[in-house]
Design a protein that fits this description.
about 60 residues, single chain
Length: about 60
């Protein structure tokens, strides 16, 4: 699914977490600017309900 969207799996996971709850704020740690920039992209990803449900099923949450 991440490849279809042109993002990394980590970006998709962060986008899913942000989509899942408006009151939850994931704070991923990073030691490299490149990873921070990748993480910031996740905030701009908008998942459809179908994509969100697919990720939820994959994670069995």
């Amino acid at each position: 699914m991440a490849a279809e969207r042109g993002v990394t799996p980590a970006q998709l996971a962060l986008a899913w977490l942000l989509h899942r709850s408006p009151v939850m704020l994931p704070i991923p740690g990073t030691s490299r600017v490149e990873h921070l920039e990748e993480n910031m992209v996740a905030a701009s990803l908008k998942l459809t309900e179908e994509e969100s449900d697919s990720v939820r099923r994959l994670l069995a949450v």
